[in-house]
């Protein structure tokens, strides 16, 4: 099975925080989206493996993604190693995504920093011809980075996607993670924080809510209509 979009997060809920609205938009438009969680988020103060897997499944159903996969990397110990590159690259080779969405490379959370390195390296490994990795070689066309920042950074997005009509879908997906945002009283302000941040980015493009993305590579435009989508 080939998919169009692969969205990779270090932990369950990362991709929903960073780009839940955009994921929903891709799904609504008929694109096949696969979410790859590098870890199950454990160990963590709130939740269990079983509960977090159920929450991740429910969130994926709300966003109507094609498939969600969880690898066996460990929360707080995610590293850009050769072994881990091959694990991620094998998934890329199996599902052959056109686009990758991965965490931003500068963050206070070491897992997010390493995940960005790991996914970028895995993209390169995915095209290896002489390899013991399963499936045929594949090279995703483009990487976009989404934000799940643990520190206050000034970021200049390459593009901001309008999620004004999907902000409630995004919040509903985050609501699926009760162990993290409802039962865990330290994080009950997360929903307001997400709305505020997405409202900020939306204001930059004169809409209600937006999600920012950064691309290190040049972005191709082949239709003049895209200039007018501003």
Question: Can you characterise this structure?
Answer:
With 230 residues, the chain is of the alpha/beta class. It has a single domain (5-228), classed as Rossmann fold (3-Layer(aba) Sandwich), CATH 3.40.50.10320. It is built from 7 helices and 7 strands, in the order E-H-E-H-E-H-E-H-E-E-H-H-H-E. A 7-stranded mixed beta sheet has the order 3-2-1-4-5-7-6, with helices on both faces. Strand 2, helix 2 (49-63) and strand 3 form a beta-alpha-beta unit. Helix 5 (167-175) packs antiparallel against helix 7 (190-204). The longest helix is centred in the middle third of the chain and has 16 residues, at 110-125.
Descriptive key words:
230 residues; alpha/beta; Rossmann fold; seven-stranded mixed beta sheet; 7 helices; 38% helix
């Amino acid at each position: 099975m080939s998919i169009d979009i692969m969205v990779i997060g270090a932990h369950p809920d990362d991709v929903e925080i960073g780009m839940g609205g955009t994921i929903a938009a891709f799904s609504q438009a008929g694109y096949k989206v696969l979410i790859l969680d590098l870890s199950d988020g454990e160990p963590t103060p709130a939740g269990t493996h079983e509960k977090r897997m159920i929450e991740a499944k429910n969130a994926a159903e709300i966003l109507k993604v094609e498939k969600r996969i969880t690898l066996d990397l460990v929360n707080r110990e995610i590293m850009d190693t050769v072994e881990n590159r091959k694990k991620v690259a094998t998934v890329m080779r199996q599902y052959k995504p056109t686009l990758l969405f991965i965490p931003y490379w500068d963050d206070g959370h070491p897992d997010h920093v390493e995940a960005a390195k790991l996914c970028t390296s895995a993209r390169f490994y995915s095209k290896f011809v002489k390899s013991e990795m399963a499936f045929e070689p594949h090279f995703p066309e483009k990487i976009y980075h989404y934000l799940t920042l643990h520190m206050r950074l000034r970021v200049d997005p390459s593009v901001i996607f309008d999620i004004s009509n999907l902000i409630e879908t995004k919040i509903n997906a985050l609501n699926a993670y009760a162990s993290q945002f409802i039962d865990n009283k330290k994080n009950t302000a997360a929903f307001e924080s997400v709305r505020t941040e997405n409202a900020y980015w939306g204001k930059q493009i004169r809409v209600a809510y937006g999600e920012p993305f950064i691309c290190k590579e040049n972005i191709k435009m082949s239709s003049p209509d895209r200039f007018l989508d501003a």
